[in-house]
Amino acid sequence: MQTVSVAVIPGDGIGIETVQAARRLLDRLAELDGGIKFAYTEFPWGCAYYTQHGEMAPKDFLSTLRSFETIMLGAVGYPGVPDHVSLWGLLLPIRRGFEQYVNMRPVRILRGVTSPLRGRNPGDVNFVVIRENTEGEYSSMGGRLHTGFPHEVVVQNTVFTRLGTERVIRYAYRLAAKAPRKRLCGATKSNGINWAMPFWDEVFNQIGETEFPEVERWLTHIDALAANFVLKPDVYDVVVASNLFGDILTDLGGAVMGSIGMAPSANINPERKYPSMFEPVHGSAPDIAGKGIANPVGQIWSSSMMLDHLGRQDLGEAVMTAVEDVLEEGRVRTPDLGGRSTTNEMVDAIIARLEARFR
Ligand code: NAD
Ligand code: IPM
Ligand code: MN
């Protein structure tokens, strides 16, 4: 029996609802499989905790999390706490502290889903965005001077280290080398961002030329790339992007898939020195929080990526097949997909598919 210790951080808003949904599914899956068990420890950290304690989590939260095999997170941030305070108080220190420098975010039109892109059907769009997850535009370095004066100045630095740039680009090449068409597109903006992005391009080309000559590589400026996600999303296998570019591209990816409520993500420390973290791309969705209608698929797909990471690709695949079967049947859908079902009804339907498969 494989027992997996999971630190659970539901966080805020619909994060609490989608995490509960994914846990219910994982528990049933574990029962059905009989070979794996999840030992959860739930941490009540987030904006409600902040209101009580004046901080998003206890000061030693990283050392608490470190002993776990994996982390499952819902969403962080809610009106009442400034977003930069909530995110820099919990989510972003985990990604950085645990060197989760690969943020893997698949973009795939699932069976049964209608993409808002005309003529794009399931199977047409299937690629992965590899987002740099520890540096870049999210440096937290900068400053503010002469607050309130007409000559006020605010500076926010962008930091690209050679180590940080090489490791994420190399990871993306390795993935592209295994893809059917062996294609890697790099997101750049070397025309305007004249120190960081030419450096990014240089590393992209150097690694491609010397280590992965078999991979077809090209760079596209981020503005044009955003347009291409809409106009020709079928040309990509793997896209590698800096922290901010990857962030924006993957909400767009979620939209291409039919709802950002379905987009998954894995924050990976490839060396496995620290725990990796699995969370959907979306946020706490204050506009629908508490209503029980959040789409649970982003969280469930992220859990499927967690199963892959734990060496149980068979179970990860079983989960996604069940999700797609339910979407294809079309009877149970949350409102973001045009339906009227609740989060729980959707999870029940996915669980029923899994039960049928194991029977
Ligand atoms: P959001 O992703 O929370 O919501 C954007 C829109 O998408 C909303 O209309 C929402 O209802 C919809 N949506 C999102 N997830 C959905 C789901 N599962 N099912 C159905 N509809 C869904 O983005 P936002 O409004 O910019 O951010 C809200 C808060 O969440 C902010 O505090 C932000 O900083 C935070 N946030 C956190 C994370 C994270 O923890 N990883 C990610 C993004 C945003
Ligand atoms: C995401 C989110 C976060 C990010 C925010 C909440 C800091 O948008 O995970 O995509 O920008 O990384
Ligand atoms: Mn985002």
Automatic annotation (TrEMBL):
<keyword id="KW-0456">Lyase</keyword>
<keyword id="KW-0479">Metal-binding</keyword>
<protein>
    <recommendedName>
        <fullName>D-malate dehydrogenase (decarboxylating)</fullName>
        <ecNumber>1.1.1.83</ecNumber>
    </recommendedName>
</protein>
<dbReference type="InterPro" id="IPR019818">
    <property type="entry name" value="IsoCit/isopropylmalate_DH_CS"/>
</dbReference>
<keyword id="KW-0560">Oxidoreductase</keyword>
<keyword id="KW-0464">Manganese</keyword>
<dbReference type="Pfam" id="PF00180">
    <property type="entry name" value="Iso_dh"/>
</dbReference>
<keyword id="KW-0520">NAD</keyword>
<feature type="domain" description="Isopropylmalate dehydrogenase-like">
    <location>
        <begin position="5"/>
        <end position="350"/>
    </location>
</feature>
<dbReference type="InterPro" id="IPR050501">
    <property type="entry name" value="ICDH/IPMDH"/>
</dbReference>
<comment type="similarity">
    <text>Belongs to the isocitrate and isopropylmalate dehydrogenases family.</text>
</comment>
<dbReference type="InterPro" id="IPR024084">
    <property type="entry name" value="IsoPropMal-DH-like_dom"/>
</dbReference>
<dbReference type="GO" id="GO:0046553">
    <property type="term" value="F:D-malate dehydrogenase (decarboxylating) (NAD+) activity"/>
</dbReference>
<dbReference type="GO" id="GO:0050319">
    <property type="term" value="F:tartrate decarboxylase activity"/>
</dbReference>
<dbReference type="InterPro" id="IPR011829">
    <property type="entry name" value="TTC_DH"/>
</dbReference>
<dbReference type="GO" id="GO:0009027">
    <property type="term" value="F:tartrate dehydrogenase activity"/>
</dbReference>
